[in-house]
Specification:
- By secondary structure, this protein is an alpha+beta fold.
- The chain is about 35% helix and about 25% strand.
- The protein has a 5-stranded antiparallel β-sheet, covered by helices on one side.
- Strand 4 and strand 5 form a beta hairpin.
């Protein structure tokens, strides 16, 4: 587990995973459960530019997986708060 600009980066089976709220538009991520599907779709679209893909397992839901630390950091730099 690592930290970058206040966001936790977890390692699951070789993939680096961040929670979708790290790159979702803050208004969408914080507007309650009705906004979650939209915010998650928005985060997936942003992450795709950096090779990010949907990530979900029994212990971690709502994640975006990346292959390299450079990709994660570039995505957070561009879209994170």
């Amino acid at each position: 587990m690592a930290q970058y600009k206040g966001n936790t980066i977890d390692n699951y089976g070789g993939s680096l995973v961040i929670h979708f709220t790290a790159i979702a538009t803050p208004d969408h991520a914080k507007n309650g459960l009705n906004a979650v599907p939209f915010a998650y779709s928005e985060a997936q679209a942003k992450a795709k530019e950096f090779g990010g893909k949907k990530f979900h397992n029994n212990a971690y839901g709502g994640g975006i997986a990346f292959n390299t630390t450079k990709d994660v950091e570039a995505c957070i730099d561009k879209y994170g708060e």
